[in-house]
Write a structure and sequence with these properties.
The chain is an alpha/beta fold. The protein has one domain. The protein is 49% helix and 14% strand. Strands 1-2-3 form a 3-stranded parallel β-sheet, with helices on one face. Helix 2 (25-34) links the parallel strand 1 and strand 2. The radius of gyration is 12 Å and the shape is globular.
Length: 79
Amino acid sequence: MKAADDPTIWDYAKDNDFVIVSKDVDMHDLNLVFGSPPKVIWFRLGNGSTRQVEDLLRRNSDVIKLFYQDEHASLLALP
């Protein structure tokens, strides 16, 4: 789905019970408009490196697990 547009990714995630993990503000905007499912984890890193993304995931693994388990949460923004 690398070349898929955002609505296609959104629908695929919704239909397959996936969580979208993205640095793209458009996914944040879709979440505000449509809510969940799917849930969205939004990395606000800009053009961060792969290492920065890895560090962010490791530092926030407990928060991410809680977000995934919370049936009312739809968006997790990580700085």
